[in-house]
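Anyone? Bumping this.
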Amino acid sequence: MRISELARRGGVTTATAKYYLREGLLPPGRLTSATQAQYDEPHVQRLRLTRALLASGLSVATAREVLGHLDSPADGPLDLLAEVQTTLTPVEGPVDRERVTALLRRWGWNTDVALDGPVAALASALDVAEAAGFTIGPELLDGYAAAAHEVAELDIAGVPTTSSEDAVQHVVLGTILLEPVLLALRRLAQADVSARRFG
Amino acid sequence: MRISELARRGGVTTATAKYYLREGLLPPGRLTSATQAQYDEPHVQRLRLTRALLASGLSVATAREVLGHLDSPADGPLDLLAEVQTTLTPVEGPVDRERVTALLRRWGWNTDVALDGPVAALASALDVAEAAGFTIGPELLDGYAAAAHEVAELDIAGVPTTSSEDAVQHVVLGTILLEPVLLALRRLAQADVSARRFG
């Protein structure tokens, strides 16, 4: 198909499809003349995927890196998850793992597989809250951890074992696309709980 | 205290404190001469709060709006939560509530208090995932909703009843500052669950 058809199938304008091509988010088509190229079904899938990553708030640079993981998948879901997490939460400077490691131990979570990125993200989020005078008590934090673990169980249970490509695609998409789902659900649930308590 | 001391107490540089003043994030101090102003304890609190809001990823404009809610609090936690949610998830264009309302009914959540912002955010997040070819089955979504409701119970249980200012501060900060905590915990939990399943 031509680029106009590709764009239509992917739900974007032709200008946007061309922009994705220029940014290397979409691989080039098969040239059929000096000014025309043909695209096929995998291009449509990649276009939809790119659109979803950008709609989830990823920058073009991060989306390009995530798509790169899909093109040369790691040695299994565990390595792939690590790669994607490192891309999504890059680490700036040295990471003080002590406090977060103590928390992981309290919850009985594996501390060896906890990557610097998410460890630093949690440590920093706790610091920021405390600096603002917001106390996160152990009960609140334990409850958050329990809920996050339930969510993660669902995330990982859904990883297909049919093929490694399917697994890769699922891990990457699930990690990124379900974040806004979780945050929106929390807000809707807060309204429900508030109405019961204060309404 | 002078602005240099205010900045030091709030953990920012003097240049940053001046920037917050210029942007209206921090109220002006009490002028003691043509070029000098004095600041007091509430300024320190406000400075720390501002820093935390910006560190959590809010834009200057959104932080200003959130701080405005704190200055003229709504008629109670329920109204305040609504105001803050509307600021954080502004609605663009008409909202198709049908699909999300059906979900809320399935979970037994109050549909009347569900604001357009979070409703539109959930509808859009589900659309984006599906357009990318990621299927969110009912089991996964129900599990996410249950976990989000547990988190929201913790959020609302922690709202202090001592004074309406405390309640306001808690709702605003909790809604914003605990989002990065939840997302970091999910990533750490995913690594733990993956290690158990694939390790």
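Late reply, but here is one note on the structure posted above: Chain A touches chain B through 88 residues (CB under 8 Å).
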